[in-house]
Amino acid sequence: MSPSAAASSASLSRPRHGRMIAGVCAGIARRFGWSTTVVRVVTVASLLLPGPQILAYLILWLLMPNDRD
């Protein structure tokens, strides 16, 4: 892996490719080295619990930058 690829994978940003809605789950999964599917399933499952999950997702959508090309 090149140094620029390692640096981009270490940052918390939304990918331009491979996103389902906004790329928040894909960005979190890539940042922490987790499976994107697992992060998406946990996110959807958490929506069944009471709490501010939708608000947190929307805030991350607004604050997480897109990947640079």
What labels would you give this structure?
69 residues
Walk me through this protein's architecture.
The mean pLDDT is 86. With 69 residues, the protein is mainly α. The two termini are 17 Å apart. Helix content is 57%, strand content 0%. The chain contains four helices and no strands.
- Average pLDDT rating: 86
Computed structural class: mainly alpha
- Which residue ranges are poorly predicted, with pLDDT under 50 across at least 5 consecutive positions? none
Largest sheet, in brief, is: none
Number of E-state strands: 0
Q: Please state the overall shape, judged from the principal axes of the Cα atoms.
A: globular
- What value does the Rg take, in angstroms? 13 Å
Oligomer: single chain
Question: What fraction, in percent, of the residue positions are helical?
Answer: 55-70%
Strand content: under 5%
What is the H/E string? HHHH
Number of helices: 4
For the record, give the distance between the C-alpha atoms at the N and C termini, rounded to a whole number. Answer: 17 Å
What can be said about this structure in brief?
The chain is mostly helical and 69 residues long. The chain is 57% helix and 0% strand.
Sequence-ordered SSE layout with sheet pairings:
Layout: H1 3-10, H2 24-32, H3 36-46, H4 53-63
Helix pairs in contact: 2-3
